[in-house]
Amino acid sequence: MSGGIEETRALLARHHRDGRRFAELMKAHFAQRYDEAFWAEWARWMEPVLSDPPTVLDLGSGPGLFLRALVERYPGARAIGVECAPYMLDAAGELPGGCEMAREDLHDPHLPLADGSVDAALASVVLHEMNQPVRALQETARCLRRGGRLMVLEWVRVPLRRYLEEEGHLPAAFDPATPAAELADIFVHFVEHNRYTVEDLEYLLQRTGFAVLERVLLRGGRFVRLVAERR
């Protein structure tokens, strides 16, 4: 990224289309995304490495809902989000005690955290939004203590036909009457949501200081949950 944080903000605005509406959708769908099944896996994999009280990092925190959930679940916790999109920061509003928001560019983050000061981290559907996730993963590894863990929830690559069908882009994707701008938007988002295979994500984690402990395909192989430990 040559343009720094402003270029990243423009990238996110294009990806989210209507940023304010997208932030509201995140709020509306939070309980569905972070349901009992999610918290059961969090308890299984992440709670064993949490201090009392814990310090947890949330990459691409959006409107800060996960931060709020953490401090409710773990009294005294320090929950640190990383976000730079203005519409997400606006939607986050005033966060409760224990929550912090670092306004950093995940393409080249420099978090105000000491080495090895974080117990656990979450990267939920954020890596696919980035031109490169290497610096974010390296910075996360720096902040995590040895034995600390990172949970990654992410889209994985599927064939074009399946993507178009599941996203409801047929027949528009091949309709001569579809405006060129709409068609371009469909295919730009196809590329963004199909950046990585599961093996790609595991490789990225392994090369940035992590050992993968678990990989579980979800939603018929369209989504993956990875748990990795800081080496």
UniProtKB/TrEMBL annotation:
Gene3D superfamilies: Vaccinia Virus protein VP39 (3.40.50.150)
Keyword field: Methyltransferase, Transferase
Family annotation (Pfam families): Methyltransf_11
Coiled-coil residue spans: none
UniProt keyword Disulfide bond, yes or no: no
Domain Methyltransferase type per the UniProt entry, residue ranges: 57-151
GO terms of molecular function: S-adenosylmethionine-dependent methyltransferase activity
UniProt keyword Hydrolase present: no
Gene Ontology BP terms: methylation
Xref: InterPro entries: Methyltransf_11, SAM-dependent_MTases_sf
Name assigned to this protein: Methyltransferase family protein
Lineage of origin: Bacteria, Pseudomonadati, Pseudomonadota, Gammaproteobacteria, Chromatiales
